[in-house]
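INPUT
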Amino acid sequence: MADFLTSQSEDFSKWYNEIVQKADLADYSPVRGCMVIKPYGYTLWERIHDELDRRFKATGHVNAYFPLFIPMSFLEKESEHVEGFSPELAVVTHGGGAELEEPLVVRPTSETIIGHMYAKWIQSYRDLPVLINQWANVVRWELRTRLFLRTTEFLWQEGHTAHATRAEAVEETLRMLDVYADFAMKEAAIPVLPGRKSESEKFAGAVASYTIEAMMKDGKALQAGTSHFLGQNFAKAFDIQFLDESNVLQYAWTTSWGMSTRMVGAVVMTHGDDQGLVLPPHLAPIQVVIVPIWRKDSERAAVLDAGRQVKQRLASLLRVELDEREGYSPGWKYNDWEMRGVPLRIEIGPRDIENQNVMVARRDTPGREGKMLVPMSAIEAQIPELLEAIQLAIYNKAVAFRDSHIADVDSYEQLKHAVEVGFARAWWAGNIEDEARLKDETKATVRCIPIEQPGGKGRCVLTGEPATEVAIFGKAY
Amino acid sequence: MADFLTSQSEDFSKWYNEIVQKADLADYSPVRGCMVIKPYGYTLWERIHDELDRRFKATGHVNAYFPLFIPMSFLEKESEHVEGFSPELAVVTHGGGAELEEPLVVRPTSETIIGHMYAKWIQSYRDLPVLINQWANVVRWELRTRLFLRTTEFLWQEGHTAHATRAEAVEETLRMLDVYADFAMKEAAIPVLPGRKSESEKFAGAVASYTIEAMMKDGKALQAGTSHFLGQNFAKAFDIQFLDESNVLQYAWTTSWGMSTRMVGAVVMTHGDDQGLVLPPHLAPIQVVIVPIWRKDSERAAVLDAGRQVKQRLASLLRVELDEREGYSPGWKYNDWEMRGVPLRIEIGPRDIENQNVMVARRDTPGREGKMLVPMSAIEAQIPELLEAIQLAIYNKAVAFRDSHIADVDSYEQLKHAVEVGFARAWWAGNIEDEARLKDETKATVRCIPIEQPGGKGRCVLTGEPATEVAIFGKAY
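OUTPUT
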């Protein structure tokens, strides 16, 4: 255990708050509930951005940008939507020194303003589908905030699509859920459970909401991305109509889907340990750090030179840094980079130069087991392979942890015990009132009704009524 | 002249407003002064983003993100700053259903909130320099707005750096001015004049402001990017202090620099013509469009197949689209893509397949001169070369236009005439009052005092006083 960091077992929440700041991911700002994303944390977000953006474009989407401000009256056009968001709004009442005629809301999400524009742009079935994504900041006035997990302002992407048929919109909703799951598993190395949100957890204004749910190392759930089938609700509220192929006026079918800077928090809480962050190689701002080691001043120049050569050879293949800082011991540097979660460390000393080797240490495997000699001639081949091995290893570790913390339960008592340490999985046929009772009595909620179902029938774990679906239950961030 | 577009000579301003909308760059939003950046315009911005971001990182900068909201009291800490920005502020007075104790300003620029954070982060000379850039939206309550050129909300990047010495901060200010000039010339193909802002045109709170000034096709000036040496003004206002190597407490020296979505407007007004946009190949969302041509239905399959093959061969080298739309004639498609400014069009018809050629048409060279046959076997080699030739040609054309619209004048009367059609260049030794008089009488302003000076001495064009510098004068956007 690092002596500057609270251990996870002692207080996971405190561990999280400490490591986010110590590793320079983020800082508190003077504005209540807003965060400052520091360069190291922002670079992680840039990697998330790039990997998601690539997937969005590969599935036919384009980016655009809509205004930050939304007239208050727009939100009121969709009744469930305004009810869901009105307690969280930040409102601009003055502009250019004068009071505004109509207050402007700082966007909490953009269905309404985008719906307004789509109504203008979409006239005919030939204009469909519209497949637009936006990278933006949004504001939700949260009472209890935590860096990355719940902040008044956060960064995200929000996809907004419009389709000619219900089937196409449903297909899009599930396609983007797949994109999120694929990103989470392959890039963030986070196993996720894709599923449908229960009635009380769905997005304000949606017909159906889908989610990918991840399990953090304290056994709690984190909703890592959502995809909503909005039916014709927003099309009717904003008059998004088109002439179909038979020249009949129809309402469009719309979807929306989002993933946010919350994903940074998910990475921290899925992989981190008592030494600090453990970053998945695909997202790590620095994948490899080279630490030069010398005892005598006479060794310094040769060691630094060798370090620079190794850096140069790797620089076109991966994200590599050489730690040339003066006045810090190699041991101090090891701890520092471990705390920052760099997946792989290369140590170079005089003997390594002599033997034409480098010593490599894996962040995910502590002690001697994680260390190995790599011939200097083989670094271009072996270092990228090692990074892929780490990516896979931390994913498998997270899967094993998650699976060992999901309990199949068939009684409410068992469920109560299970959600103290992880997820419970059980038959479920509850309604909104049952969900409220469950939350009240256990602090847990229905996290999702998984897409993959066992089939067959059972009895609802809460009510005993006949049930055809199993749900995942857990306490959530 | 395209019949759907006002000609530039008839009404340049109307031409601009029309083409920005017709080419799907942007649209008006229901919120006063805010714009919607449509996918085609946003993709252009993404290209600007990527080219700038690459240059920022190559000069040692990292990205971070600071809050959208700034306490009103922060702006008041730097007296010139608050005086400059207070007429333009949007103010949040309510959050989460309650009135706020202190109103929050929606950032018009971030010197103040970033200054506050730097004061916390910077303790020692070892913490310097801090070289951070932010990509963000900002809000300035403008009275008269125009898409891209002046909007209430716009997207930009703002660099904010802190240094141990005055010399380093000045060097950084000029380095980033160089980066902007390099980007403008090499990527946007816009010739710019780098120079110092006059006293009345400088940034609110800066010691000195630098700018790159571009000339639009109507002879007016557009400030395309600015870089500010802030001295110790913000360091003193926000208490950014550090212990130097002699353990003496010093105030840091800071800079800031920004370029915005305005650059999209600059691209439109530098290169566009009566047929529509002319986009520089380095920034064009689509660099090459392939238009398949057939008369008989029996030719259709072979032509489309050839088009797809050409697209596939070029796709890894450049941004290429195949126009497979049904129900539009080739001629209609030519006009459509010309209007959208795609640099190069490839036409493929049955005879081209037979002869193993493609017909290529340059957007920047109208008529027969811009058309040529390229052997099918040579497209990978010749098409990218042609794009580079276009990039250079439109830059040279813009330089020629600019240079033929700058008049060296030595009387105030000549200056008045010159700024009706372009820029005037003249000796200048005016003060703030002289600048006010100049603007009042001519509607022109000192655009910049160019970095490159002729040397020697002269008489101020306005006052007749001895002058050691020449300035550029023009009417500005």
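end of record. Chain A touches chain B through 55 residues (CB under 8 Å).
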